[in-house]
Design goal:
single chain, about 150 residues, alpha+beta, 3-stranded antiparallel β-sheet
């Protein structure tokens, strides 16, 4: 999601601060426009039309990288968010960000390891006079984690 760099929402996002608006439903269009423009404004207006009256937006940050933002709304019939809810949301999003980043790191390292393994395999089995050779490569199961690959001639 892109935000306008001059908007309050964007400025809070890049500094890692949450946006806490317990009375979000009472804001008019001009007040929402001060928060964000374009797509962000469209989403806030749509949320209000759907009955959202309270908002918390927390940046999803891990290892000083902003991966996104988690936006939570409360709908009509529920109480507005409280400062306790904000604290809980920040803790939850912080833990989620680290878990997501760890999963991305694991996937990247796994892809590198697989590329290295495949790069080390011979492109073709050499011709040896007097022998008929065939080969087979059997990768280990994903659960093996380390080792277990077989290449045999």
């Amino acid at each position: 999601m892109e935000t306008n760099p001059t908007s309050l929402y964007h400025q809070r996002l890049v500094t890692g601060l949450p946006t806490f608006m317990p009375l979000f439903g009472g804001l008019n269009a001009d007040q929402l426009r001060q928060m964000d423009f374009g797509t962000g404004l469209d989403r806030m207006v749509a949320a209000q039309r759907s009955g959202a009256h309270s908002l918390i937006a927390v940046p999803l940050i891990a290892r000083d990288v902003i991966m996104g933002v988690v936006v939570m709304y409360r709908l009509d019939g529920s109480k507005p968010f409280t400062w306790t809810d904000l604290s809980l949301a920040r803790d939850l999003v912080s833990r989620a960000a680290l878990s997501i980043d760890n999963a991305r790191l694991y996937a990247r390292e796994r892809a590198s390891a697989l590329a290295l393994q495949h790069g080390l395999l011979p492109r073709q089995v050499p011709d040896v006079p007097g022998l008929d050779l065939c080969h087979r490569y059997v990768p280990a199961k994903r659960s093996a984690e380390v080792g277990g690959d077989w290449f045999d001639v």
